[in-house]
Amino acid sequence: MNELDIVEKLQRRAGPGKGITLGIGDDCAIYRPRANEELLFTADQSMEGIHFLPTLPPATIGHNALARSLSDIAAMGGEPRFCLVSLAVPGGRGTKFIDGFYRGLLGLARRTGTALAGGDLAHGDKIYCDVMVCGSAPRGKALRRSGARPGDLLCVSGRLGKPWGGRIQPRLELGRALRGRATSCIDLSDGLALDLHRLGVASGVAAMVDRVPRARGASLDRALHGGEDYELLFTLPSRSSLPAGTTLIGNITEGRAGAVMFQGKPLPARGYDHFAGG
Amino acid sequence: MNELDIVEKLQRRAGPGKGITLGIGDDCAIYRPRANEELLFTADQSMEGIHFLPTLPPATIGHNALARSLSDIAAMGGEPRFCLVSLAVPGGRGTKFIDGFYRGLLGLARRTGTALAGGDLAHGDKIYCDVMVCGSAPRGKALRRSGARPGDLLCVSGRLGKPWGGRIQPRLELGRALRGRATSCIDLSDGLALDLHRLGVASGVAAMVDRVPRARGASLDRALHGGEDYELLFTLPSRSSLPAGTTLIGNITEGRAGAVMFQGKPLPARGYDHFAGG
Q1: Distance (Å) from the alpha carbon of A82 to chain B's nearest alpha carbon
Q2: What CATH number does the domain containing A69 carry?
Q3: pTM for the full predicted model
Q4: A244 in a domain, yes or no?
């Protein structure tokens, strides 16, 4: 099987996408924007041995590679439009891995309305992929990290500290529901402590956290500093009602931008940082 | 230096981009499309040991990583708008490599009007990067692989079989000049023989090649089957005049889609295919 065969197979499996006037198979894909839409762009890498173990089923690797980028679209309140998938695979794992990978990825793509518009295939020493997703939001309505104000409620979806290796479920519905309600939003990819610090820095505010909804069996340290939860952390104006499935964990306060207090003590901005100490 | 420091430094160096209403530093970048524009998307991977040797200067690696994707935008007659850059770097090569890489990449980005809008940074075993570029063309005007017709002139820019390791110069000006003139276009990333085969398949036509403009010292085999030339291969209606710096190398003919005759003999569709034999 050569690159042309794989590309032809993907063309058949990918199907058409709304707004995609030219899909897989030319030098570029073409997207025709709609009136009054703003486009959101994000890219996330997934590497064997770093983001997943080589024993993870290929379909889960594909699912999660797309889910990581969709989680960023969710954090901005966007609707996914299409993705570009770059994949490098060792020769020995060729066709079988590629089939499983795209089965998992395209399953999630279909359920979330994300068209596969293109990408790149290559041989590599290890499995490596990078997924770019384009999402859409009405002009000026995308959620940002920078809108939190002192007095806002601090909330999180789901439970934190989940074990790695499961299928990531991007919170796309919640993200869209927060559009026009939340004052700021970020997805938890590197742990609550570090991502809340980032939100505080972007908004120029501090935060107080009283409690954290923990996943079954998760230690407090893991719930605060573990990565890969892919839940949404967001702020609401005081006296707002909380969306279903979310928990009030604290408040936004005045203070040094990015500073976080947890149950009365400073919480260090430690989490899953690929470049810490590097 | 941690990821936050690197991202902050890139924010300062990247500068604003036309239409980018939110750049590096949030979950997604935001692009506001203009009226009547169609957006072109492409992604290309560059891996140590496969696309470049580890001894290549970091600035050249960064330049070429962007240039590969810009060449796809050129082949569609587009104008670059912005890029997302995903980069994995071994811990030991950290800051110095990253600085050089982005110096090379941002230099080419500035000269071509490409904003750096976001991406992803991670540690990896080897240097790996994936560059997504978004380009723009007036609605319905992008060049495709599929428009070649029997009788068309077959042309190529520059000279083929150049040695690897130099700085790739994407043919953006030529691509734009071909808009409304060329009937089809593709960039030569995997060699004339294979890429002409692809153009023929997409257009449902065959081709005859009489001659090939060779780079100094290049063998005929390298000029026909070597990759990484990043010149444009395009077709013009018969009796068209050729743009400066381009050479007439043959004609489009009726026949089996993708078949190529070179100086009277069949030319195999052999080139630089990452998945051949895999």
Answers
A1: 10
A2: 3.30.1330.10
A3: 0.92
A4: yes
